[in-house]
Each structure stands twice: as structure tokens, then as C-alpha cells.
Write a structure and sequence with these properties.
By secondary structure, this protein is an alpha+beta fold. About 25% of the residues lie in helices and about 35% in strands.
């Protein structure tokens, strides 16, 4: 579990530090204050072994087509575009202190790094590794000991990586606004095999009480390609999720409302991130206000079962109220609310509320969003 985080020179964060992250943490604040970037910083930290993680930040926002390996594009990720200062993301966890640092060497070379065979598949082949070019370098450490180094050329010619030891990172999953239609059918299948599908059905009935069951159905996809003038049929197998709501035919989950889609993705993310962390942007989206207390009760219970830290952002006063109402005596020590705000110099700061402090603030009609 993460208990504190520091972010330097990343997007809108110049020099930010806050304590008070709990197993269930809500992040609030005005538009464009950095709530989504806060989640992205954590996801980047837990993706430190992946060479493509830095560029993945563009695709998370639906702007993957804008990303190219150029210093100009890398600069977008640095505070005020200042690539002369390192970007640093650090977190204190139950296991120790993790630190991810990015630097840009405008005219440098990637360091000479031997790549262990077991991670070669992550890194890709080396190509002209000594060619001069701008280099994006990352260094990932735990308690001051380097675990991984990655370097990527601006011209895309080479990527290199070194893993000092085999320490694994907790699984991190991020769900940003609008991504509700891509379901991990494999996780649902595993839940079904292990007789845990009732947990999913119980949560979904908050929104649709008529749901009787869920099925994962294999779907065969055929694609014909012409190779040397000869038609060649390629067959791949995918899966679709169907829901039984008492009609003559089961309904494809993708055709049901956004609320159902959101909730399924939340549950899948938590189950798939056992002993890890799930990051959800605007968690209240698509969920009717009258259902939010029940939603929070289910998510808190599932997160506890899978020992998964849940960190989410919200714009909603009602979402805060529902979360506080759902927090029982046993969970109140496991909940914090962090409100992000900018000062007159546009520096981002955070204020932490315990469950009791947030409950009091809401009772007094204080503006804490």
C-alpha cells in the first residue's frame, strides 16, 4: 500500500508531496488541477520496468497518434516543458521507498547496458545503439538501490534496459474517463471457474436488479489476406460478455448502459490487481446518485477481499457523501480524502481529510470538492 507520494517536474506538478494515502483514497479538486495526472504519475511509477510506459501516457488520454519519440513530445510531460530538470516520482509503501527518475540528454548516448535474456522480449532488438541522438533515460530504485534503467533514443533507433534483480512490482490498473467498453473476459472466466461470479452479480444488481447471470462466449474472427496471390484465412478467437436479464436472448454487455460497464470494469480491475493498486478517474461517472452508497460498499468490500488499494478521483459532492456513508467503523481508519488546489503561483498543494473530518465538513456544508 502507498502511504505517501512525491511528484516533481511532472506535468502540472512542480514540487508536490503529500502523506495520507490509505487503502481507499479519494482525490478531489477543481478542473485541470491535476487529479488525473496524479493517477497517471502513480501508474507510471508502477510501470517502471516497461520501456513503452512513458509514451503510453499519451494513449491513456486517447492521444496516442500524437506521440512520437522526439524531445519536443517528451517535453510535454515535464513541468513547464523544462527538460533540463529531472522528473521524479516517489512513493513510500509497505515494502519500502520507490523512486522513478526521468532525464533527457539532448545530445547524449544511451548507456551501455547488458540485457538479460528473460526481459529481452520487453525491450526489443538493439539497433545502432551508439548513434548520437537525444536520449530519454529512466532510473528506478528501491530504498536507494537501482532496480532498472531504461534509455530511449529520440529517433527511435534503440531501447536498452537493465534489471538488477528480479523483484516484481505490484500490479497497477488505471481506468480513465470514457474507457468502459473494453472488458477483460479472461478475468470473468477465472472468477466463474473459482465460483466467485456471485460477487460480480451481487454488485451489478445494484444497477440492474433483474440480472440473473453472466456468460463469457468465445467469438471466432475470420480475416482473409492475399499472400502471393493466394487467399489465406486467418482465424482468431476473442470473447464477448453476455448478461442474462430475463429476456429471450442474453444481452451483450457492451450494449448495456455505461453504469453497468463502469462497474464491471471496476470489479475486474480490482480482482486482476490482487495485492496491487487500482486507479479510477471520475469514479461517479455513469452511476446514479441514489446507487452510489451501495456501490461504495461493494467496492470497499471487494478491495478488502483482494487486498487492493483503490485510489479514485471525483468531482461530485454526492460521491463524497456516499463514500463517507459507506465507510463503517472498521474501515474509517482505511479511508482518506485528498483535495488538490493551486496557489496564486499555480503550485499544486494537497489537504488530507480523514473519514471523520470529511464527514464533519460535509455536515457543515463546507466546500471540499
Amino acid at each position: 500500500m502507498i502511504s505517501s507520494i512525491s511528484i516533481k517536474n511532472f506535468k502540472g506538478f512542480q514540487n508536490f508531496h503529500i502523506k495520507g494515502l490509505a487503502p481507499i483514497t479519494l482525490i478531489g479538486g477543481k478542473n485541470n488541477v491535476g487529479k488525473s495526472s496524479f493517477l497517471e504519475a502513480l501508474f507510471l511509477l508502477y510501470s517502471a520496468y516497461a520501456p513503452q510506459a512513458f509514451g503510453q501516457q499519451f494513449s491513456l488520454r486517447g492521444a496516442g497518434n500524437l506521440y512520437h519519440n522526439t524531445i519536443e513530445n517528451w517535453a510535454v510531460m515535464f513541468y513547464n516543458g523544462d527538460v533540463d530538470k529531472p522528473m521524479e516520482i516517489g512513493a513510500q509503501t509497505d515494502d519500502g521507498h520507490y523512486q522513478l527518475t526521468y532525464t533527457i540528454d539532448k545530445l547524449g548516448h544511451a548507456p551501455d547496458i547488458n540485457i538479460p535474456p528473460e526481459i529481452m522480449s520487453q525491450v526489443g532488438p538493439l539497433q545502432n545503439a551508439n548513434a548520437p541522438a537525444g536520449v530519454l533515460k529512466s532510473s528506478f530504485a528501491k530504498d536507494g538501490n537501482t532496480l532498472c534503467e531504461i534509455a530511449m533514443y529520440a529517433n527511435g533507433m534503440a531501447r536498452t534496459s537493465k534489471k538488477v534483480n528480479g523483484e516484481e512490482l505490484p500490479k497497477a490498473t488505471i481506468i480513465l474517463t470514457g474507457n468502459v467498453r473494453n472488458f477483460n473476459a479472461q478475468v470473468l472466466t477465472e472468477l466463474d471457474i473459482n465460483n466467485r461470479m456471485d460477487m460480480v452479480l451481487d454488485a451489478l444488481r445494484i444497477i440492474e436488479p433483474s440480472i440473473k447471470g453472466i456468460s463469457v462466449v468465445p467469438v471466432e474472427n475470420r480475416k482473409t489476406m492475399i499472400i502471393n496471390g493466394v487467399p489465406n484465412v486467418q482465424v482468431t478467437t476473442d470473447a464477448e460478455v453476455y448478461v442474462d436479464i430475463g429476456l429471450a436472448r442474453k444481452m451483450p454487455l457492451k450494449l448495456m448502459g455505461d453504469g453497468i460497464g463502469h462497474l464491471v470494469n471496476f470489479i475486474i480491475a480490482i480482482v486482476n490487481s490482487r495485492n496491487g493498486i487500482v486507479l479510477i478517474d471520475e469514479i461517479e461517472n455513469g452511476i446514479h446518485y441514489s446507487l452510489r452508497k451501495d456501490l461504495w460498499e461493494k467496492l470497499i468490500n471487494i478491495a478488502k477481499q483482494f487486498k487492493c488499494q483503490l485510489i479514485a478521483t471525483t468531482h461530485s459532492y454526492g460521491c463524497l457523501q456516499s463514500a463517507v456513508e459507506a465507510i463503517g467503523e472498521e474501515e474509517k481508519e482505511d479511508f482518506y480524502y485528498i483535495r488538490l488546489d493551486e496557489d496564486k503561483n499555480r503550485l499544486i498543494h494537497g489537504v488530507t481529510y480523514t473519514a471523520e473530518e470529511l464527514r464533519f465538513a460535509l455536515q457543515m456544508n463546507m466546500e471540499v470538492r
